[in-house]
Amino acid sequence: MPFARRTAALALAAALGGLAATAAPAAAGAAPRPGPETPSALLLTVEGGGDDPRATLLVCGPAGGLHPDPATACRLVARVDGHLDALDVRPGPCTREYAPVTARAVGFWQDRPVAYTRTFDNRCELRRGTDALFDF
């Protein structure tokens, strides 16, 4: 497993473990309220287009993780309330080059599971459709 993927996987495991640890005491008392104060974590991957696969961890609430621009990425996810299929942030022209790139996100957004997979015709289409979210 490449170093970046292994690091991202370990970071996601640690983040999700932290979420479980904070949820355990809450389970003994009142149920946690979903909302902006609930930590959210997404493992983001990009593969294809002739480059090596890449992965990073995005944590929101507060913004952090391994993503190079977590604040912007968290704002993008918040704008669509975790429904990444609704992202279409920078429409515009791209070349007609066909070099498919697949973007994936798995994790939780404010207590809801997220499982997103979309294949774009090329990296330009990926950037146009997702802006900074998959720009790592």
Automatic annotation (TrEMBL):
One of its GO terms (cellular component) is extracellular region. Residues 39-122 form the Subtilisin inhibitor domain. It is found in: Secreted. InterPro entries: Subtilisin_inhibitor, Subtilisin_inhibitor-like_sf. Keywords: Disulfide bond, Protease inhibitor, Secreted, Serine protease inhibitor, Signal. Residues 1-23 form the signal peptide. One of its GO terms (molecular function) is serine-type endopeptidase inhibitor activity. Pfam families: SSI. Belongs to the protease inhibitor I16 (SSI) family. This is Subtilisin inhibitor-like. It comes from Micromonospora chersina.
